């Protein structure tokens, strides 16, 4: 049996999503360690877009402004999500070769994460990876995005413990969407984990316990992890000024 890789564990709660993304990018690009991050909620309602997302195609700009939603373009690909204090975040950051037999390519990594999280979710329903989403049956509760660079990879997830339908109204129906969605609106496409899992505290603990079964975990402080932010590396996270994307009515 292959030895378990050493992975640094960072546990956070109500840590701002922008700062989390900035930290993740630093850990990916400026360290050689393996990491597992868990953040139990972000204090500010925010929209987070993939690096190639176009604001006016994905966001109802006026609605987002009305709701004072912060809009962030993250350093990874993937779709657009609304996050808040009811979102639980995880991030896996690994060195190529840390997991024996896993190829450092998008599809194998995505498939491996399905097996990684299987023990957390299968007792609560028909859990599976559907295209790039985690679902119970045909209802999405987890959105994923990835980055691969310099023989390192990152896979991060936003889990919907709960969500506010009013905030979801700030998102447009994307032109490109998974086939299993079948054009459904957010309200009928998404589901809340609180509808299936017994408690949020238990869920967060099970995420850590599950990681402990796969890795040799070594917990670190935010102060220690944040040292990576002082190093030189490419920085691709940015906050979007929605005012620059307001479309003027035609005369």
From TrEMBL:
Pfam families documented for this protein: LplA-B_cat
Domain BPL/LPL catalytic: 28-215
PANTHER family, A to Z: BIOTIN/LIPOATE A/B PROTEIN LIGASE FAMILY, BPL_LPL CATALYTIC DOMAIN-CONTAINING PROTEIN
Protein name: BPL/LPL catalytic domain-containing protein
Species annotation: Tetradesmus obliquus (Green alga)
